Amino acid sequence: MSGAQQARREFEQFHAQARRDNTTSILYVGAFVVTFIGIAYAAVPLYRLLCKRTGFMGTPKTEPVVRDVETLKPLDSHRKLQIKFAGQVSTMLDWSFKPEQRHVTVVPGETTLAFFKAYNNSDKPIVGVATYNVVPEQVAPYFNKIQCFCFDEQQLEPKEDIDMPVFFFIDPEFANDPLMDDITEITLSYTFFKASGR
Q1: 169, 111 in Cβ contact below 8 A?
Q2: Mean pLDDT taken over the chain
Q3: Is residue 69 very low, low, confident or very high in pLDDT (cuts 50, 70, 90)?
Q4: Residues facing 61 on adjacent strands
Q5: How many Å apart are CA 54 and CA 182, to the nearest integer?
């Protein structure tokens, strides 16, 4: 075999190996990209689930908890807590939204009903969805909603106004947590956004 043929054969082997290496690299990069796109799509629902279950980042717990009548008995001997309400609307949503009362006074274990009023300022039906938050954040694990307009999307017809209830309680365990000793005021805040795709 001549030197030229040998060089050509080595070049072809090198080229075939490079092609296999390139194919392997493309497959690894493709798998990496697909994996991270999947993680990105899963991140938001998983984060919301974490927040709802644990009260992380000021998100009130909304998971159903089995309680007997004894645990929901108001702790009348505990100091009173002032629950303040706040309501805002995204600039993309032509609604007015505000609490019907500025605050209520409760004790842990006492169930309370509060109302917000929403009004559709536009000439067309609009669907909105509310996000909520509790401040200070460390109270969120003890703030339990039994019923809330924020659990579902809300549709308002043109110029319609409605009362939106939230039924909640502060977990009686709040009274046993030494980190809650200095807390006398809690703010429950809602922001309404236009529902995506609506």
Answers
A1: yes
A2: 84
A3: very low
A4: 144
A5: 21
